[in-house]
Amino acid sequence: MTAQLIDGNALAKSMREGAIARGEKLRAQGVQPHLAIVLVGEDPASQVYVKHKVADSEQTGLRATLERYPADMSEAELLLRIHALNVDNGIHGILVQLPLPSHMDSQKVIEAISPAKDVDGFHVSSAGALMVGRPGFWPCTPHGCLKMLDSIGYDLRGKHAVVIGRSNIVGKPMAMMLLGRDATVTICHSRTADLKALTLQADVVVAAVGKRNVLTADMVKPGAVVIDVGMNRNDEGKLCGDVDFDGVKQVAGWITPVPGGVGPMTRAMLLVNTLEAAERATR
Ligand code: NAP
User: Fold this and answer.
1) Across residues 28-37, what is the average pLDDT?
2) DSSP SS3 for 254
3) What confidence tier does 1 reach under pLDDT thresholds 50, 70, 90?
4) Which residue among the candidates 97, 118, 244, 249 is catalytic per the annotation?
5) Residue 238 annotated among the catalytic residues of the structure
6) Which atom of ligand 1 is nearest to the CA of 232?
């Protein structure tokens, strides 16, 4: 069997087209959706990420303002800045790019963002809302994964989903979203005793670890859907995921590539969340 590809680039493109239409509708009502991105310090990867986020927003007709601050900015100054953005009615979404410099308490900074503007979905209120099934912003990466499953018309009811990774931004919210769709969910992590025994039972595997070849062909049930969240570099320095793509695609029914899979969907879901924030602000 050769798995069918879930094309994140194509799906993200269609999500962006939907976002453009939603933005136009808002502008017709006199609302310009506006995302504030806060970058503290000079982390090279963060600089690339924020550049993409600004470009994506602008290409979709959203306004994005990038606020850059030096690495020695104090936490108190950053909290004041976030407060000012919270009370600014012209700002609908606030994103603080992580990681923050080590002298700052990232969770405290995230908690300072108004939940109504928490478009990254990292605030404890957003996590709690997802947990209890109330409206709130869902973290972009797992939400993008769910959209990928929806795009192939996959019915999760009664299926066994195995999520590898239990981070607050990917693994745990992913598990909650799958549970919300009536899948039976197993969450694995670095202390899981026999990962292969669990993944072999899975109808859906989401790998969110950050290590190459965490999931190999011998660990996958024939026909399973495999979503690869990981972002790693191979020996040649090329971007690759957590999944041994060439091997697993011989066994799986569906698979996401890296690059061109979850990454573009994460970016698209940020636009969707920003629009959602702007729409809610008009209600
Ligand atoms: P993280 O916070 O480092 O979490 C990694 C998780 O993997 C942890 O729960 C860890 O377990 C688990 N783990 C480590 N080794 C394992 C093993 N051998 N077997 C099973 N589980 C293992 O990472 P993250 O932020 O969730 O990100 C995960 C990956 O996704 C990274 O490569 C990241 O770059 C990528 N990512 C991609 C996107 C995208 O848009 N494509 C977005 C976000 C993240 P413990 O909890 O026991 O330590």
Assistant:
1) 97
2) strand
3) low
4) 97
5) no
6) 32
To the query of whether residue 120 is one of the catalytic residues in this protein, the response is yes
In a domain, 194, yes or no: yes
Domain count, the chain: 2
Ligand 1 geometric centre to CA of 209 (Å): 3
204-230 mean pLDDT: 98
CATH number of the domain encompassing residue 104: 3.40.50.10860
Closest atom of ligand 1 relative to the 261 alpha carbon: 41
10 CA distance to ligand 1 middle (Å): 25
Distance from the alpha carbon of residue 230 to the mean position of ligand 1, in angstroms: 7
The CA distances from residue 163 to 5, 186, 215, in Å, are 19, 6, 11
Which residue range is the domain that position 239 belongs to?
140-263
Whether the predicted model's global pTM rises above the 0.85 cut = yes
Query: Does residue 55 lie within any of the structural domains?
Result: yes
Residue 19: how many other CB atoms lie within 10 Å: 24
Mean pLDDT of 250-278: 98
- Ligand 1 interacting residues, C-beta cut-off 6 A: 141, 164-167, 169-171, 188-192, 195, 208-211, 214, 229-232, 262-263, 266
Q: What is the CA radius of gyration of the chain?
A: 19
Phi, then psi, of 10 in degrees rounded to 5: -65, -40
Q: Are residues 258 and 159 in the same domain?
A: yes
Task: Give the chain's count of helices (H) and strands (E).
Answer: 10, 11
* Domain identity same for 254 and 144: yes
Relative to beta strand 225-228, strand 63-69 is unpaired
Mean pLDDT of 41-60: 96
In a domain, 279, yes or no: no
